[in-house]
Design brief:
Pfam families: Cas_Csn2. Strand 4 and strand 5 form a beta hairpin. The strands form two sheets. Strands 6-7-8-3-9-10 form a six-stranded mixed beta sheet, sandwiched between helices. Strands 2-1-4-5 form a four-stranded antiparallel beta sheet. It contains six helices and ten strands; from the N terminus they run E-E-E-H-E-E-E-H-H-H-H-E-H-E-E-E. It has two domains: about 150 residues, Rossmann fold, CATH 3.40.50.11940; about 55 residues, no CATH class. It is α/β, with parallel strands linked by helices and about 220 residues long.
Length: about 220
């Protein structure tokens, strides 16, 4: 699988690299690239191109973006995919219990609206709606780095996503913490794209490739 970005020559071939750093000095381009990863990952108006063997792929099926390390709540789009995975695991026994639960909910609502002068009816409740109702989510710890790694494992297990984008992690984590994250990713066979605004080409033995875009939009890789 290969990722490229319209207007630039660099390519990231995930068959050749595990951890790659995209170092962007030009602030305008930095903002545009980050915006595209967060908001335009799958959109036609975005500039991200993701393909394999000349076939265009839907990036969100393969890539997850961490854009806020302090708010790691998984987005509704990805949670909906998780709910669909859970729905496939529903057995006949589960359905019997669910039907009893649905009847109890309907009876509860009927008692409340009994005195209303309206002719009301109820929609059937689905398992997907029930999963959304109870607000399934990961339990987070105080250790932000540990939370990120738990998110990676969770997202990979339920959605088979292996590529994770980290935006400016150097601002929040020490070199030792990042090394721990990189080691975890390599052990788990994950891929990482680091989008950084740091103006340096400092090497790290865990990083396979550094791509730099300078103020004049010259590319170094």
């Amino acid at each position: 699988m290969i990722l490229s970005y319209l207007g630039f020559e660099f390519e990231i071939n995930f068959d050749d690299v595990n951890i790659v750093k995209l170092n962007i000095e030009n602030k305008r381009v930095l903002k545009e690239i980050i915006f595209d990863f967060i908001y335009n990952l799958d959109e036609s108006e975005g500039n991200i191109i993701f393909y394999e063997s000349n076939s265009i792929l839907k990036p969100s099926n393969y890539i997850y973006v961490f854009n806020d390390f302090f708010d790691l709540e998984i987005s509704k789009n990805y949670l909906t995919k998780y709910y669909k995975v859970l729905n496939k695991r529903v057995s006949y026994e589960h359905l019997e219990r669910f039907n009893i639960l649905q009847t109890s909910i309907h009876n509860y609502v009927k008692e409340i609206v009994l005195d209303e002068n309206f002719d009301l009816e109820f929609d059937e409740i689905t398992n997907l709606e029930l999963f959304k109702l109870v607000g399934l989510k990961l339990k987070y710890e105080e250790n932000i780095l540990l939370n990120i790694m738990e998110n990676m494992k969770f997202i990979n297990e339920i959605l088979s996503i292996e590529i994770f984008v980290l935006i400016n992690p150097e601002i929040y984590f020490s070199k030792e913490e990042l090394d721990e994250l990189y080691k975890f990713s390599l052990y788990s066979k994950f891929k990482i794209i680091i989008i950084s605004s740091e103006n340096n080409l400092t090497t790290n033995h865990y990083i396979d490739k550094i791509i730099s875009i300078d103020e004049d939009l010259c590319e170094i890789f």
